[in-house]
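Data card: per-record layout.
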Amino acid sequence: MIRAHLAPIGLPEFGMDAVRPDFPIALYAARLARLRERAHARGYDRVVVYADREHSASLSWLTGFDPRFEEALLVVGPSGEPALLAGNECLGTAAAAPLPVRAILLQDLSLPDQPRDRSRPLAEILRDEGIARGTRVGVIGWKPFAGRTMLDVPSWIADELRAMTGSADLVENAVDMLIDPGEGLRAVNEVEQLAAFEWAACRTSEGVKRVILGLRPGMTEHEAVALLGWDGTPLSCHTMLTAGPRARFGLLSPSDRPIERGDPFTVAFGIQGALDCRAGWVAEDAGDLPVGVRDYVDRLVAPYVEAVAAWYGALRVGVTGGELFEIVARRLGDPFFGIFLNPGHLLGLDEWVSSPIAAGSEVELRSGMALQADIIPATGTDYFTTNIEDGVALADEALREAFARAYPEAWTRIKARRRFMAEAIGIELHPDVLPFSNIPAWLPPFLLSPDRAMTLLG
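The structure for this 458-residue chain is written out next.
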């Protein structure tokens, strides 16, 4: 078996577009039409989409509206413009949504103690939108549950819908129509959306690269995270960077703590459509590590990289999620590695849409899917962790031709990344696999020596 090892590797400059690719407004109308078709087939008279600041991706995907501060509701009927209910501060931006909507003020969506004297009650608005006794309503929140009657929207909304329809059984969790990993509308992306994701991945990966190349002992975590160069593009998750004892918690935000030589270190940067993450040690070589973990590369990083390479090698249109799961389970199934989350998931405007990759999953991956290589060891030991998280897309021949024709500069970058992964890292990708990150599978475990990274070659 080919063993992963450290070697001198020069990371090329893959480049990036200065401007986000145009996103045709007509796509929103097409998405609405597909949702209506799906709702009709399910027997829903109305669909209600809920969003808040943390869980806005489905509403944003459907309308282009991204709520700030407040919550929002979209009521979709079988025809006509949907009603977008917004609070005091979002009503103006709701009216500017790319998808034509009827913006309606609902002040109960506003922040605490703001005025609530100008809007009609929720029940009255819903009644005007066609929700009444006997109406079947599909509710799209954030996540599905075992039973369709379990909703993840605030009780004041769920209770009103159930009271108005006359039965809890008529109000169903319908988020699977959008995010089901096999059949959800958001599981497969248009070529324009994939181009936007590639643009986003360039930014997150270049930011993580700047952090690694600029990392120095003595700088604070806040000084290090500034190297990401975030430009205000909406985030898909909070920005993570920690070193030292706090790094073991993984998800924390940076502090004013100075970074020290010999610290464990992790960084993750996600904007809508992309996330990149790396983890390792603030060290030049194994001599900077604690005595008990100086075999860090051999014990943890090498088998991890071998598993990731096998995962990438099997990735293609038509492979099942169960097959990808088993690759990681066979190679990293030892409890030492602590792999317990899905080894990979769908990526969208939100960092985690859903995942077809699970034990026994028969979901076949499809052309147009965007995925995140998300295989995270949680050793819970002094070895800390290692991590390669990058975004990729799957595209059959027709979609590849469409992408290359519409976005030739991005296509050139994709081809260059594929060559780098094959010629420098030793990962041969199926033609279906389009790497979007500018640090594709690049993993320097000793962050003060970024010129040495893991490879399966030589």
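Known properties of this structure: The two ends are 13 Å apart (CA to CA). The CA atoms of residues 70 and 110 lie 6 Å apart.

See the next section for split statistics.
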